[in-house]
Write a structure and sequence with these properties.
By secondary structure, the protein is α/β, with parallel strands linked by helices. The protein is built from 17 helices and twelve strands. Helix 11 packs across helix 12 (241-251).
Length: 370
């Protein structure tokens, strides 16, 4: 577990303008800790790819650490947990996406983040009564599964309908917000957000009092898609946030299902388009979801794979890489950070394992076992 001091330094890195999740991981991979990053000279930072004068100037802002300390105190005061990408408690599925947040804020029941089955339910803000009814009935049937969480975006329309139906059905539900924890958006969802913290929770990567600017919603959507095994699009127009979430889920190799509608229905156009382009499976009823996800009657996913025999390694470092990848897909930066192997040496080891059929590369400098 990270020390309080290191958490504050990582918050400072998170608050630094022009440094996103990927660049944060690059810096942490090189310098091993956020505290070390802030103790570097300008000359040392200039040697890192993608680090320009503007970013270096921002890192030397003396107020960053003060703001980070204030932010940390607010999280402690309001019982908000910080989840860091490098830590073991970071959600496994979210860690597999190439643009996973370096850190996020969470308020609620931590068990809801650890459930085996994670289902995203998204759709238009202008939901029809038929769409709302389908959403409620589908979620009601999800009660049969143990170890399941419903994830959505706490927006008006299908999102909040999914959260309400989950609460009514005693299913944990998580709302991913584009704003900070300091204020719920829209404000009239305050009551349901409070209920969700007792039966699920709230997530954001925005600092405490950040506002839900339009550019933050696509970033919010990637967390919804990244957390989940499958994304269900209940209703969606030809353009909108629900389709962005579906496209992101598709890019992460996650399953997508969409509820079809008549060609004349404005808020079925997006769903029909996803199905037409073979990006989404058809969702007519609950059994379609159960069949696609291979969830048995007892709510457990049936295994289609036999245990693999462990390969022979040329050296200890190859075995260490294998052990890391046994827990799931890893990014190159994460392997550098966790194994403490120089990137050039690690690249050669990965190539050797790939040529021997032990691992395979994935888009976004990610690797997995064959």
């Amino acid at each position: 577990m990270l020390s309080e001091k290191e958490q504050i330094y990582r918050l400072a890195l998170h608050l630094t303008p022009k440094i996103g999740s990927r660049l944060s991981r690059v810096l942490l991979g090189h310098f091993e800790s956020a505290e070390n990053i802030f103790s570097q000279t300008k000359q040392s930072l200039q040697k890192i790819p993608q680090i320009g004068e503007g970013i270096i100037h921002n890192l030397f802002d003396k107020m960053l650490l003060e703001r980070a300390k204030e932010e940390y105190e607010l999280t402690q005061k309001h019982d908000i947990s910080l989840y860091f990408y490098s830590e073991d408690n970071y959600p496994y599925k979210l860690k597999q996406i190439p643009d996973a947040p370096t850190l996020f804020y969470f308020k609620g029941q931590k068990e809801s983040l650890e459930n085996q089955k994670m289902v995203a339910v998204v759709g238009t803000r202008k939901a029809t009564e038929a769409g709302r009814k389908f959403c409620r009935e589908l979620i009601y049937e999800l009660q049969k599964f143990n170890d399941l969480t419903i994830v959505s975006g706490l927006a008006i329309g299908i999102d909040v309908e999914a959260h309400k139906a989950s609460l009514k059905s005693n299913i944990p539900t998580i709302g991913v917000m584009a704003n900070g924890m300091g204020k719920v958006y829209p404000s009239f969802h305050n009551k349901i957000a409070e209920e969700m913290c007792h039966q699920g929770g709230l997530i954001t990567e925005g600092q405490m009092f950040s506002k839900p600017d339009s550019g933050k919603f696509p970033a919010r959507n990637r967390i919804i898609a990244g957390l989940c095994d499958v994304t269900l699009v209940i209703e969606a127009a030809e353009k909108g946030g629900a389709l962005i979430t579906a496209e992101l889920a598709n890019s992460y190799d996650r399953e997508i299902m969409a509820v079809p509608g008549r060609p004349s229905d404005k808020y079925s156009a997006g769903c029909n388009k996803l199905i037409k382009k073979h990006k989404a499976h058809l969702l007519n009823e609950f059994s379609d979801l159960e069949y696609l996800m291979n969830w048995g009657d007892d709510g457990q996913q049936l295994s289609l794979f036999h245990e693999k025999q462990k390969p022979t390694f040329h050296n200890q470092d190859e075995e260490r890489i294998y052990q890391e990848l046994e827990t799931g897909v890893k990014m190159l930066d994460e392997l550098v950070y966790r194994l403490k192997i120089p990137q050039t040496q690690l690249a050669a080891l990965l190539l050797s394992l790939e040529l021997n059929g032990v691992i395979r590369p994935l888009p976004g400098k990610r690797f997995e076992l064959c």
